[in-house]
Inverse folding.
């Protein structure tokens, strides 16, 4: 049998290797899954992970999926650095889309691209307000933010359903639960003609870069990390805990709200009952897989972006349900958590003597 | 309000509260042993989909329910292996279990969307079901509702009268001390986690086999999360959990009552009610923070590694 022996120091090497181990294990489990379903694992994995990126169209579509992941993950990372467990990016994204979309729909006759500024602005504000509510509940009442933000995800979703079934329903839309199409003036500019990828990917990259600077080069970023690592040290140093909680929640809510309004003002083009295939939840995996570092998050959001494209690909080619995406994402997170024990422990045969030096 | 309406409201509140009761009781036992499993929602979904699939393909509701319990316990075993043997963080692992369960159930259930099943029928107890007001709510329910009450009574007995209840509590309060006096900490925790998983699976099966006999993606709609709040709200006491579960059951059917009485409020707005109520409950509980901290199992959420 094997046993775990605690390392004297956490292994930084293993912290970097463990996401790779997790990805490899996911591929192994994926091939077993595909074989069980009666498909050649090699061909299926190729279709899932490689084929989506075999042409320019695939790469631009990847950009479409990656942008909201980067935006949400960049914000969530700030929260998790401070050990504020915001699970509410999904709801903040929805409220952002709703708030920004509402502004866009209210002024259909404004014929200027400047209209995008208030639309995106209200998207950000909507997400901030939704996250701010959770921050208020946490700082004022000390409620558990995991539970409140998840409850608020459901509330936001019903809010969106209410809006597209009620006040924001397109009067000329044959009674479908959808808003009117946004005018071209409240639609995000695309990067290349004929492709869907739009400037939201630039927002995502900018948010990641900015979050790196904040976390590594500024005092608030330092305070966040101290609060996350040692609450009593943060208190001893006189950091205002509530202010840190408020800041990380507002920033991550704003970024998730931006992701939401970019979805509806970008590739979707109107408010519909489902605007996100769970980007807010997937972004949690992105943060953990990216080792809570903006650079890691960049690569992790690409990998998880591919799982969305791969799901669509195997649906087309193998007639498997698209929801296989969620299965792969869940496996990835499980394998990551399991591999992470290598950071704190080494695995030894049960009968071997402990090593004295680590 | 006429008596018939009250009677039907009570009946529906119990029916709607039963899945919450099942999950929350399972999670309570799990937390009493010191393990916080945030994967309830995922285990419920796995139980719901497996239960429905087995019931549809074998034609036996009993087999479906049994399969759902096993599936819930199996997914809990995965959680247990990670958190208890590999010592991963319980919060992150529970979250992972929910994400995984959501994905797995959606994937497995795709071919079963739109299929129907003759669900579990009520077992009417003659004469007693005719008692005014409460008769229908108590004596005209299906077997799983009765079973949930039996489990509730067993858990009351477990923690008030039996040695096993003491062992679970000792392990949850102070695992080091429990280990020192020779109690099997890991084994107890594994069993509590498995029990919680089985209960979550059963609750899922209740939804897909008895309550609305069908499968749809994410059909638990946050009940697993609400149950987690309910356990805190009930201060880890089973008799408060059953009360809270039926109260939430009432909150979840309020939109049906309002519509029935002719109020013109959007069903989507009223559907928010259970979630808003959960947040309200969390706020109320926060006023009694010291009491909550005092009542919570002391080692809740902490990994335990036996010093051998």
């Amino acid at each position: 049998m094997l046993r775990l022996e605690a390392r004297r120091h956490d292994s930084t090497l293993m912290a970097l290797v463990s996401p790779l181990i997790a990805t490899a294990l996911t591929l192994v489990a994926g091939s077993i899954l595909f074989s069980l379903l009666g498909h050649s694992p090699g061909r299926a994995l190729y279709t899932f992970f490689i084929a989506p990126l075999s042409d320019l169209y695939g790469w631009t579509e990847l950009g479409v999926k990656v942008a909201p992941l980067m935006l949400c993950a960049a914000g969530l990372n700030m929260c998790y650095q401070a050990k504020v467990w915001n699970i509410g990016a999904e709801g903040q994204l929805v409220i952002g889309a709703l708030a920004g979309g509402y502004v866009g729909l209210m002024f259909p006759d404004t014929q200027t691209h400047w209209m995008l500024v208030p639309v995106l602005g209200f998207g950000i504000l909507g997400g901030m307000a939704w996250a701010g509510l959770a921050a208020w509940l946490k700082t004022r009442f000390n409620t558990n933010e995991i539970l409140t933000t998840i409850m608020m995800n459901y509330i936001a979703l019903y809010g969106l359903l209410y809006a597209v079934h009620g006040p924001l329903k397109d009067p000329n839309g044959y009674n479908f639960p959808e808003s009117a199409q946004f005018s071209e003036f409240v639609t995000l500019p695309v990067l290349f003609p004929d492709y869907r990828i739009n400037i939201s990917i630039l927002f995502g990259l900018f948010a990641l870069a900015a979050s790196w600077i904040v976390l590594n080069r500024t005092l608030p970023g330092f305070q966040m990390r101290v609060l996350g690592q040692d609450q009593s040290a943060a208190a001893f140093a006189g950091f205002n805990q509530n202010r840190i909680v408020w800041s990380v929640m507002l920033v991550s809510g704003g970024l998730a709200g931006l992701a939401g309004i970019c979805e509806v003002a970008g590739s979707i083009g109107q408010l519909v009952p489902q605007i996100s295939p769970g980007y807010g939840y997937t972004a949690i995996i992105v943060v953990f897989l990216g080792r809570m570092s903006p650079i890691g998050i960049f690569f992790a959001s690409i990998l998880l972006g591919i799982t969305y494209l791969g799901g669509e690909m195997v649906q087309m080619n193998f007639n498997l349900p698209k929801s296989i995406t969620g299965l792969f994402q869940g496996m990835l997170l499980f394998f990551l958590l399991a591999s992470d024990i290598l950071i704190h422990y080494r695995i030894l045969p049960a009968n071997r003597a402990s090593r004295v030096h680590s | 309000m006429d008596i018939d309406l009250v009677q039907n409201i009570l009946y529906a509140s119990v029916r709607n509260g039963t899945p919450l009761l099942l999950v929350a009781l399972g999670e309570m036992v799990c937390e009493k042993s010191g393990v916080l499993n945030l994967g309830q929602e995922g285990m419920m979904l796995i139980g719901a989909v497996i239960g429905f699939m087995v019931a549809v393909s074998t034609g036996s509701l009993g087999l479906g329910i049994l399969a759902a319990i096993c599936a819930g316990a199996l997914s809990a075993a995965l959680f247990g292996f990670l958190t208890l043997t590999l010592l991963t963080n319980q919060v992150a692992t529970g979250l992972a279990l929910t994400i995984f369960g959501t994905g797995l159930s959606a994937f497995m259930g795709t071919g079963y969307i739109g299929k129907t099943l003759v669900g579990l029928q009520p077992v009417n107890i003659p004469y007693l079901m005719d008692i005014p007001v409460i008769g229908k709510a108590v004596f005209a329910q299906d077997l799983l509702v009765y079973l949930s009450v039996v489990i509730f009574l067993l858990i009351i007995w477990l923690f008030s009268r039996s040695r096993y209840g003491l062992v679970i509590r000792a392990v949850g309060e102070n695992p080091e001390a429990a280990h020192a006096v020779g109690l099997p900490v890991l084994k107890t925790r594994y069993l509590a986690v498995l029990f919680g998983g089985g209960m979550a699976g059963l609750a899922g099966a209740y939804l897909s086999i008895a309550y609305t006999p069908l499968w749809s993606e994410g059909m638990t709609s946050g009940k697993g999360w609400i149950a987690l709040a309910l356990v805190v709200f009930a201060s880890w006491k089973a008799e408060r959990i059953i009360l809270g579960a039926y109260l939430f059951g009432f909150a979840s059917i309020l939109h049906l009552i309002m519509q029935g009485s002719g109020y013109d409020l959007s069903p989507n707005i009223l559907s928010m009610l259970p979630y808003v109520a959960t947040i309200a409950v969390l706020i109320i509980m926060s006023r009694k923070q010291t009491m909550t901290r005092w009542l919570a199992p002391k080692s809740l959420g902490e990994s335990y590694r036996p010093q051998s």
In short: Chain B is about 70% helix and 0% strand. The domain at 3-295 of chain B is CATH 1.10.3470 (ABC transporter involved in vitamin B12 uptake, BtuC). The mean pLDDT of chain B is 91. Chain B touches chain A through 47 residues (CB under 8 Å).
